[in-house]
Every structure is written in C-alpha cells, then in structure tokens.
Amino acid sequence: MRALTVDDSKVVRRLVGKVLGELGFEVAEAGNGEEALLHLLQYGGPDLIVLDWNMPEMGGLEFLTRMRKMDRFRDAKVIMLTARNDLPSVEKAMNAGANEYLMKPFAPDALAEKIRLVGLSVADPG
Fold it and tell me: Distance (Å, rounded) from C-alpha 101 to C-alpha 24?
C-alpha cells in the first residue's frame, strides 16, 4: 500500500513516514498542499494520506477540498494530523472529506488505530 504524508515540518514527515513504513506502507512526502496535489497528479492517488492543517502555500483543508472534487482521488483515505483540537476544526475537516482526525503530538499506536478505523490493513510492526 502507498501513503503520502503532508506536513510543512520535515521532522513530522519523517516521524509519520517511519511509523507508516513499519506498518507496511511505501511512503512519499510533501511539504504543503500544493506539493501534495502535484504528487497526486504525477503519481496517482495513494491508499492513505496523513495531512497537516496549517501549511504555507496551500493548507490541508484547501488541499482536501480540492482533492475530493477530483473523482479519481475520492477513495483515498485521509487522516488529518494536526495540533488543532477544537470541535469546529474537527467538524470542518470531516465535512471537507477527512476520514479520521488525530491530534499532535500523537503516539504511533494511535496512528495505527486510526488507519485501521478508515478500513486499511496494517502490518504488525513487531
């Protein structure tokens, strides 16, 4: 399975990528929503996108809204991974097409559980 982690923090991208790799994903990275859209158009849609909210150029919510308007990417599972922890933000993300929402900082097993909740199988990292 393929995953795309989208965050303006290289440290967060690497951490998420490491967790996803241990769960059996082939991982690509993007530093903002604009890079992520270009990645989708060039390489096709991944099975999973782990998406930050606040990023330069194009934020996560705008990326998600634009991506969901494209038929070929409608089935990609999206987990918002963000420091925003208020209910209106969660509702906005879910209404825009996020499948799950996870707060930063996060535990690797919490990310694995969210991936299972969106219906994707993950490898046993042990």
Answer: 21
- In this structure, is residue 58 part of a structural domain? yes
Q: Rounded to whole angstroms, what are the CA distances from 125 to 20, 46, 60?
A: 9, 20, 28
Among residues 77, 5, 12, 11, which one has the least CA distance to residue 35? 5
pLDDT in tens, 51-98: 999 999 999 999 999 999 999 998 899 999 999 888 999 999 999 999
Phi, psi torsion values for 101, nearest 5 degrees: -140, 130
* pTM, 2 dp: 0.94
In a domain, 27, yes or no: yes
Q: How many domains does the chain have?
A: 1
Report if residue 125 sits inside a domain.
no
